[in-house]
Amino acid sequence: MKRSLLFLLPLLTSALVAETPKESDFYTITNLPAPEGTSIEGGGIELLPDGKVAVCTRRGQVWIIEGAAGHPDKPAKWTLFAEYLHEPLGLAWRDGWLYVVQRPEVTRLRDEDGDGRADVFETVSDGWGIKGDYHEYTFGSQFDREGNLWCVLCLTGSFTAEALYRGWVLRVSPEGKLIPTASGVRSPGGIGFNAEGDVFYTDNQGAWNGSSSLKWVKPGSFQGNPNGNVYFDFAGGAIGDRPQNPPFDEGGSRTVKERENIPELVPPAVILPHQRVGNSPTGIVPDLTKGRFGPFAGQVFVGEQTHSKIHRVFLEKVNGLYQGAMFPFLQGFKSGNIALRLSDDGSLYTSGSDRGWGARGGLPYNFERVNWTGKIPFEIHEMRALPDGFELTFTQPIDKSSATDAAFAMEAYTYIYQKAYGSPEVDQVSPKVSVASVAEDGKSLKLKVAPLTKGHVHELHADGLKAAEGGFGLLHPQAYYTLNEIPK
Predict the structure, then answer these.
(1) How many CB atoms lie within 10 A of CB 410?
(2) Paired sense of beta strands 27-31 and 149-153, if any
(3) In this structure, is residue 12 part of a structural domain?
(4) Whose CA is closest to 485, among 322, 326, 313, 263?
(5) Residue 436 within any structural domain of the chain
(6) C-alpha to C-alpha distances, 443 to 153, 373, 380, 399, 456, nearest whole angstrom
């Protein structure tokens, strides 16, 4: 009998481990292999009216994919639509034209003779400059509600602005007019919208950026890096006067302090703590699927190139500024995600590259599709700021007996605002976290946090919290809330 029990013990242990929820139980990743001999380093993805998917590559091509949503049951078909473009990093469809955001211009393409290849190439706008530096990327959005394309331009070498409007956010109107919109950009990785239609871009750690972050492009704002501000005279007053420079002295400052001195300075909406969650944030896409992609409708997904991941972001406005929380979402992609596009039917497409920076995925490029399995993960759904703490909502009811003070831990920190490259975490605080109340239905609770620190990332760990059904812990028990403003 003892031998039999010993023999069964590993099997029982294995069964218990297998029951522990994992990301793939809720979201699957499907690889769509490209034609042999090609390198699909995707920089932009667009959904076409006929159900096909377009992707532009860092190597200057545009491919059209037929059957992307049904692969691999029915293999997808790839067709080369255009080539010889200059590192395009944005695609958008409008009125029969495919708009491509290249390094030096916005170009629109059309296939007039019906052979499946673009034969008309028209320049829509080319009102900015390039020097030829490796880092002079230009990322483009889809169209906004007024028909504008938004473009965000990396600095030269990611440090200086040696060509017109490097370090700026620009809009291109439906008529092709260039509209300077915001300054202060360093090294973007993507630009897109939230569910409300406001524009955000991702910026990477470096000079004047202590950590990478998701930033709100408030028209007329200064995003923090002064190197591109030399072009204010060319903007013709479109976004007001040139903002005051931040302090260049050794030792730097803090963004929360410099907001008092520089009215145009808009702080990062959500800081993505360097190394802790990733190194290079990229594409931005809102979930407008009304539940076809799971329980996160209205939230935002952000790509991560170096760690080959996708983050989930909850945003809210407090005292007129965006802020919110980043949650881990999904990892295990084959290369470094750059472009994201979410279809109405709930297919999230991503593509990217490891060229220039390594990526954990291990392959030089990827084109992959994410789908929801229909199962609801146990997750923190939203994290909202309160005057004395935070309110958490959940995708499933919690076991209320597990919602004790001991279930939670928090640390808070910020970064130096300085011209030097990046920053360590500084001004560390160890807040006391206590459970103030738990909703009767178990779908939300309020935490009292003392102290709350304006301008700090509040990193929450809820490792002790359990689901009412199954008794499992949160799939991702971490949250990173950027507290730009404390609610009144």
Answers:
(1) 20
(2) unpaired
(3) no
(4) 322
(5) yes
(6) 42, 22, 10, 10, 27
What predicted TM-score, i.e. pTM, was given to this entire model?
A: 0.95
With respect to residue 3, please indicate whether it lies within any of the assigned structural domains: no
CATH number at residue 409: 2.60.40.1220
Specify whether the CB–CB gap between 38 and 81 falls below 8 A: no
Q: What sign does the dihedral 273-278-284-289 (CA atoms) show? A: negative
Closest CA relative to residue 460, chosen from 444, 445, 471, 449: 449
Do 264 and 333 fall into the same domain? yes
List of the chain residues with pLDDT < 50: 1-9, 11-18
Instruction: Spell out the residues 6+ positions from residue 194 whose beta carbon is closer than 8 angstroms to its own.
Output: 200, 286, 300, 315
| Residues 359-368 pLDDT 10s | 999 999 999 9
DSSP designation for 417: B
Residue 437, Cβ neighbours under 10 Å: how many? Answer: 12
Q: Is 294 left (phi over 0), alpha (psi -120 to 50) or beta?
A: left
Written as six digits, the tokens of 374 are 């229909």
Q: Measure the CA–CA gap between 154 and 161, rounded to whole angstroms.
A: 9
Residues 61 and 142 in one domain: yes
Q: Are 422 and 273 in contact (CB under 8 A)?
A: no
